[in-house]
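Hi X.,

You mentioned you wanted examples for the new student's onboarding notes, showing what a folding record looks like when two proteins sit in one file. Here is a clean example. The first protein comes first, with its sequence line followed by its structure tokens.
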Amino acid sequence: MDNIVVEALIRALSVGTPLLLACLGAIINERGGVVNLGVEGMMAVGALAAFAVASSSPDANLWLAVGASMLAGAALAALHAVATVTLRANQFVSGLALALIGTGAAGLLGKKFEGLPLFNKVNDWNLGGFIINPFTVAALLLAVVMAFYLNSTRSGLTLRSVGENPAAADVLGVNVGAVRIWAVLAGGSLSGLAGAFLALSYRASWADNMTGGLGWIAVALVIFVGWRPLRAVLGALFFGFLYYLQFRLQGNSPVPTEVFNAMPFVLVLVVLALAGLRGQQGDAPAGLGRPYVRGER
């Protein structure tokens, strides 16, 4: 029984890793007052960039592949930053466009990588009999560091103030636009890192639509966890456990496979509805989704 519980926990942590990384990126975005619905697209281009570098030769450096994924995610996020922060476009429309651009571009450019071997992959670590993935360790550490950064550092307070009341932050000499652009780029790089986990470790291959809607779940997870990094760990673990159940029960149950495939997305709707009923949306930054124009109220 204990082995089953430990196995379920490890699997849930592993499956929940890309959700946690992408959720942390979205938290940084939204703490700065910018909504980015393009997480799915940034994960897709991050996965493609990582696989393209890692599959280029048997001696390819996996660190370069990880760096490429983060740069690709940040590059796509830069389009969103220009559109929403500089040009003050609607953040929701821009984010949706980003998701479509990212997934479409990754699918098109990734055609030539389908079926190619991955010479090296990021293997799990054996820490005293406890098997864990390096991406999972990095995600957990990032959650702790981000919580400390947002709550206990001057720059974290600046980021939060820009998301809560950009006009007040501007009066105090904060460059609101620069802070928001930095937040969007940081969020994009973490989404790209989530894609690298899929390409270099979890699936260790490239296939069109390999993100499978995880980016959309990560966006919803931000609301569910109340924009708090440490809560995001529990939220990712919860949804990771759902995916683990999905894999374990498929083929061992009379329930159709489609029901298990839809389970995580149905639960997203349920938890968001529960969050709305108990007023958790009140935890959102006050300036979230609103473009800032100096002198306007």
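Then the second protein repeats the pattern, sequence line and then tokens:
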Amino acid sequence: MKIAIGIEYHGAYFQGWQSQPNAAGVQDAIERAIALVGGEAVRLHAAGRTDTGVHALMQVAHFETSVTRPLTAWVRGTNAHLPSWVRVLWAVQVDDAFHARFSARSRSYQYVLYNHPVAPASQHGRVGWYHRPLSIAPMQQAASVLVGQHDFSAFRASECQAKTPVRTMHRAQITQQGPYLVFSFEANAFLQHQIRNMVGALVYVGQGKLSADAFAALLQQQDRRLSPPTFMPDGLYFTGVQYDAVWQLPVSHARWA
């Protein structure tokens, strides 16, 4: 049978989602825990891979198993074998045709930036930080040009292995909550480091180092070498996946704010 699960994790404790030779990936930890519950090895397939230091409020993955367990066992039993910084939130049996990655219609991320002269202590590792005041209006104007289908080569990591840099951005918004700026993005898929690179460029806009028009020109030039540096991973959260209702999954989105 095939089981889909929702997952939350603190990315600072892992070397990204993907399984690592030293078993330090999120995937490694959860596969070990599920194997202890089911008594057999499993392979997890996720909706999207996150890098080292990137968190998830709602990652979705699936695995196949030949054993029968109550769905509560795949949640509570698995969590009993996991460190406190990663949790399975729900588990459902799904049709054999379901695939956590290929059945997904879109993915959502949020980047949380603490804009204050002093770096946060209680939020260390959980939010990004920039010390000088940022002007949000030009940042919002610049972010709006990201919506639609574009070649995102300007914000693509040099080591990105995606077959095409073209992605469709459904939403690119920036809101302010006191000293926190929350960047919200939804797209059919994302390139490696794409969000951190876009946030880095938008911070340049907020500083006045880059105009909204110049930001739009960067997107059109499709040259990563012309864009500002990649921003820190600390404030990036995988917040959910959009699936067709036919799969009957529980809520697959969770927002930071």
